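Q: I have 227 residues here and want to know how they pack in 3D. Can you give me a structure?
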Amino acid sequence: MADFLYKVSLAVVPRLYVALSALWFGSCRLEVTGRKNLEKILKQGGGVVPFWHYSVLYMLYHLRRYPGVAMVSASKDGEYIARIARLLGFETVRGSGNRFGVRALKGLIKHVQQGKNAGIVADGSQGPALVVQPGVILLAAKSGQPIMPVVWAAKRYKAFNSWDHTVLPMPFSRIVLQYGELLSVPAKIDSAQIEEYRQQLEVTMKDMYQEVWQQIGKIDHIQGKKE
């Protein structure tokens, strides 16, 4: 019975989500900074686009207009996200740092080398939250394409009680989104250099995170208090 309900929900929930999200997120007022960075990565063809796990719901909707591939967890819950991503026009590669990670990384590399943008959760499928995982750096090194981080904040939102406190912007909310500066990673890179670039990207993304939330008068997406 449980398997039957799961299969039914897989057939219904993703389609319902995509239909509702078009109305829900479409009502929000979006403010974008760093657009020149987006133009650079689109012009050159292909790039690595990391974002924090808390932001995945809106990020899939926002990035739907660009040709790309998304890395999605190989878990049963990840199947919902994978189907949503495909309905929004993404190709998907299944895997994570804990499961099928190497195979998924190889799949992403091929897609990026073909000129597609790879959306990848910077802090992985299980966290820790706001800690960049090394897979982002490896993908950039092996594909030969730069990294362009993306971070956003919402004025009004619901933060769920999950490990990352996933954020759902409320309808008609103000959303501030920032495309970060491009970061190039050398093809030949050792473990020490991977960690160096990983830390550099983490600092950049945390700075972006603080900036967008401060722009809307919040400390962060968890506390959600005005400064």
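Q: Anything worth noting?
A: The chain has seven helices and nine strands. The two ends are 49 Å apart (CA to CA).
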